[in-house]
Amino acid sequence: MKPDIDVFGLTHIGKVRQLNQDHFVVATVHKRLEVHASSLLDLATLGVGDDRLATLAAVADGVGSGVGGEQASKFAVEQMLEYLGHARRCYEMHDETADSFVSDLQRAAMACHVELVGRRHEDPSLTGLSTTLTLVLGVWPWIYVLQTGDSRYYLYREGALQQVTRDQTLAQDLVDQGVLSRAEAPQSVLANVLSSSLGGPESEPVVTRIRAEWRNVHLLCSDGLTKHVPDERIAARLGAMTSARQTCQGLVDDALEAGGTDNITVVIGRAAARPA
């Protein structure tokens, strides 16, 4: 990774689970795709390039307690990398064709969903073959955020933390309908029931486009972090940030100290310095 970007990702199995179903990746797109960090070690062979076209990070959290969830999250990360690694024309034309680029990202996610559904039908034992996916793609001067499920993307700027993604859960649906309050939702039995996922009964990938700024700090995480670490603590960690690595480790430690009942994955990135 070039020194103009400070980015790091970390995943931990937690204190309770027997299998880590989370996967993450940090990569840059050149003429080919260069993987800098990932829970999928075999991705390191995908090659290098020259001038950077885009920077991306993704977190996927497999659903369920069996191997199907781990397989689904791995597949989702690999499939999106395959698509984004061959989308050179999209990066070069994205500013003029933003709506088309958003649609292309949604179609790529839906293609992944359809493949996972097909695999589950072929092998009924893979009942948990579904996953969340939250992916952030930086193509200056824009940030594209693709999300399905409840893994989150936060934007931190000048002391303020904003959750950009909306949790696709039944509890959040009830909050939106006015049935539950925001304070009640985390304690609801529906808090961990997804209304949308890749490979699940329903999938509605959402893509959000926001303008990139050098002062922004970006955080992606699975719900193994957010079910234990409140937004106030996340903001405090980011506010005291000295490096992406240090802050990722601090947040994982916070989740472990608070119980660590799920797999925990955190990816943090920022511009190291504004170019002259």
Layout of helices and strands:
Blueprint: E1 5-12, E2 22-29, E3 33-38, E4 54-61, H1 67-85, H2 88-93, H3 98-122, E5 133-139, E6 142-148, E7 152-157, E8 160-163, H4 170-176, E9 206-211, E10 217-221, H5 223-226, H6 231-239, H7 244-257, E11 264-271
Helix pairs in contact: 1-3
- Indicate how many domains the architecture comprises: 1
Order of helices and strands: EEEEHHHEEEEHEEHHHE
Q: How many beta-strand elements?
A: 11
CATH homolog superfamily: PPM-type phosphatase domain
Question: What form results from the Cα inertia axes?
Answer: globular
Report how far the terminal alpha carbons are from each other: 19 Å
Q: What is the topology, as strand order, of the major beta sheet?
A: 3-2-4-5-6-9
CATH class: Alpha Beta
Strand content: 25-35%
Structural class: alpha+beta
Mean pLDDT, as a whole number? Answer: 88
Spans of at least 5 consecutive residues whose pLDDT stays below 50 are 44-49
Largest sheet: 6 strands, antiparallel
- CATH architecture assignment: 4-Layer Sandwich
Radius of gyration computed on alpha carbons: 18 Å
CATH topology heading: Phosphatase 2c, domain 1
Helix residue percentage: 25-40%
Count of individual helical segments: 7
